[in-house]
Task: inverse folding
């Protein structure tokens, strides 16, 4: 299960680990494997990660929690970064069976113009937000390039960090957007499993390998930070998450200057009425998050408002380094909350100020601005 460093792309690594073979390896894990993984935190070995997410590791949850918290405080101190999503459009050419933006749904489609984007920015700035995650549905490639280039130019001057979670783009587009000040790109594979085509039947997103190689293009383009993850619930979360760990190991070896973030989007109710075949319980999600921290203490772990206040209150001190707050998942939702064209229902409606008070009670500090944009420039006088 070791990575072959001579591989020229992650696809080569991926094809060396068939889903069925991994299922057999997962079933064969013993308590001794779990204890070995716990004895060498930070190994970055995907085999150790698989042991930590196995059913056999469930009785070790308390020990995992203590170790995870220790590693998190050592690496990140007592700070948690704040971000907020900024939805620009719900237009989409894909037919994803689980998504509230699917083209199969009959609903008004919106793409914010500059005036509308600036109205959203005004609300976010009043909330104290300094890091935004730009989100859209999937356009045609030409429309995406033109609109995103323009939209980033509107947004970037107002925030310390601008990241985005949009459709996979060519390397040249990422390079251009990075030069405009784009900080990071989140692109989740949704599932690495053989059922991918079942969930993505129409649109560009049905191209599994174009999506799989997105982090490769991000690394080549020199994007500062990239985010990985899967939609928890689409398929076996343990196997899917193993591939995320495998992907992370590959990226960190080949693109070692890139910061890496892992997110945990657990499927939430949406207009498609999709019901996941593999629901992930709270206890299982805790196990998964702790496993990532023990696997690699340098990973940024993000937990969104998909999760309940109770869950976030208890989980953030143990492993999480980045959270959203006050989120709206519909375009124009901050300035016009009555529009209600959300991608999915949020679960934690607390504002950034409320989250700040909650974290303070746990001895943590909510950070809205952890670096200055000019730190990424080759010549600081350009700032």
Result:
């Amino acid at each position: 299960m070791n990575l072959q460093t001579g591989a020229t792309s992650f696809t080569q690594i991926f094809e060396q680990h068939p889903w069925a073979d991994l299922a057999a390896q997962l079933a064969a894990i013993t308590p001794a494997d779990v204890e070995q993984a716990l004895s060498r935190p930070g190994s970055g070995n995907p085999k150790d990660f698989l042991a930590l997410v196995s059913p056999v590791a469930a009785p070790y949850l308390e020990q995992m929690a203590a170790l995870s918290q220790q590693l998190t405080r050592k690496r990140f101190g007592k700070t948690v970064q704040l971000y907020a999503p900024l939805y620009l459009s719900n237009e989409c050419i894909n037919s994803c069976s689980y998504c509230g933006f699917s083209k199969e749904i009959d609903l008004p489609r919106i793409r914010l113009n500059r005036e509308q984007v600036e109205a959203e920015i005004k609300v976010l700035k009043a909330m104290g937000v300094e890091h935004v995650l730009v989100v859209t549905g999937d356009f045609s490639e030409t429309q995406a390039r033109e609109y995103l280039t323009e939209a980033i130019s509107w947004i970037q001057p107002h925030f310390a960090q601008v990241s985005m979670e949009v459709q996979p783009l060519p390397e040249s587009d990422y390079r251009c957007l990075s030069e405009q000040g784009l900080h990071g790109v989140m692109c989740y594979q949704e599932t690495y499993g053989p059922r991918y085509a079942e969930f993505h039947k129409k649109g560009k997103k049905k191209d599994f390998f174009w999506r799989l190689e997105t982090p490769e293009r991000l690394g080549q383009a020199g994007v500062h930070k990239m985010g990985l993850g899967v939609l928890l619930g689409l398929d076996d979360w343990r196997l899917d998450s193993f591939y995320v760990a495998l992907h992370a190991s590959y990226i960190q070896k080949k693109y070692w200057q890139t910061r890496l973030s892992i997110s945990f989007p657990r499927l939430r109710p949406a207009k498609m009425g999709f019901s996941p075949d593999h629901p992930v319980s709270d206890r299982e999600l805790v196990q998964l998050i702790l496993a990532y921290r023990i696997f690699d203490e340098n990973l940024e772990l993000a937990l969104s408002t998909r999760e309940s206040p109770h869950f976030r209150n208890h989980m953030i001190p143990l492993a999480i380094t980045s959270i959203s707050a006050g989120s709206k998942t519909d375009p124009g939702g901050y300035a016009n909350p009555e529009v209600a064209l959300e991608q999915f229902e949020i679960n934690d409606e607390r504002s950034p100020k409320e989250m700040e008070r909650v974290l303070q009670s746990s001895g943590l500090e909510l950070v809205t601005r952890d670096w200055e944009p000019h730190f990424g420039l080759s010549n600081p006088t350009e700032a």
Confidence is low (pLDDT under 50) at residues 1-5, 373-383. The chain has one domain: 10-369. Residues 237-254 form the longest helix (18 residues).
